[in-house]
Amino acid sequence: MRLEPTAIAGVYVVELELRQDERGFFARSFDQAVFAAHGLENVVEQANVSFNVAAGTLRGMHLQVAPAPEAKLVRCTRGAIVDKIVDVRDGSPTYLQHVSVELTAENHRALYVPPFFAHGYQTLVPDTEVIYQVSGRYTPEAERGLRFDDPVLGLEWPLPVDATSPKDASWSLVDPATRRPHFAGEAA
């Protein structure tokens, strides 16, 4: 496996190195030593699967804050998605910038999402499945989100958003004057 850096420090696309023969292929998809050598968190505390019926489904933009921030390793195992993450790290030189990566069952890529990045994706085809390895347990009181259609973020989705959750559609917008997100439960 190779970790390919993106335009935002600490964000990597994980490329598999396939060993192929007449049976198919074998590849290492996670290696704690390789992650540690790149300064990345271990992402094996919890694993989740998301199945999406329709193309155009959007999930996100989610993150967890202190005391339970989490890193993620996201991979599409069936179908195809466009995965986007937004840097919300205080003081980061890439604050509110985003990375967008197409993950498909065919390209076998994964995206490493560091803590304090909002994460979301849109399905490109019906019957799409996504798996996440996560560095921490889901902690509802630490959950936050950004709106997928926030004009300050300027996220462009390849398809019309045909389905999303009421919660994802109701996250607060980033304040255009301060360029700060207002997370529910936090002082404005």
UniProtKB/TrEMBL annotation:
Belongs to the dTDP-4-dehydrorhamnose 3,5-epimerase family. PANTHER family: DTDP-6-DEOXY-D-GLUCOSE-3,5 EPIMERASE (PTHR21047), THYMIDINE DIPHOSPHO-4-KETO-RHAMNOSE 3,5-EPIMERASE (PTHR21047:SF2). This is dTDP-4-dehydrorhamnose 3,5-epimerase. It comes from the Bacteria. It comes from Cellulomonas marina. The active site is at 62 (proton acceptor), 132 (proton donor). GO terms for cellular component: cytosol. SUPFAM superfamilies: RmlC-like cupins. Transmembrane segments: none annotated. The record marks 138 as: Participates in a stacking interaction with the thymidine ring of dTDP-4-oxo-6-deoxyglucose. One of its GO terms (biological process) is polysaccharide biosynthetic process. One of its GO terms (molecular function) is dTDP-4-dehydrorhamnose 3,5-epimerase activity.
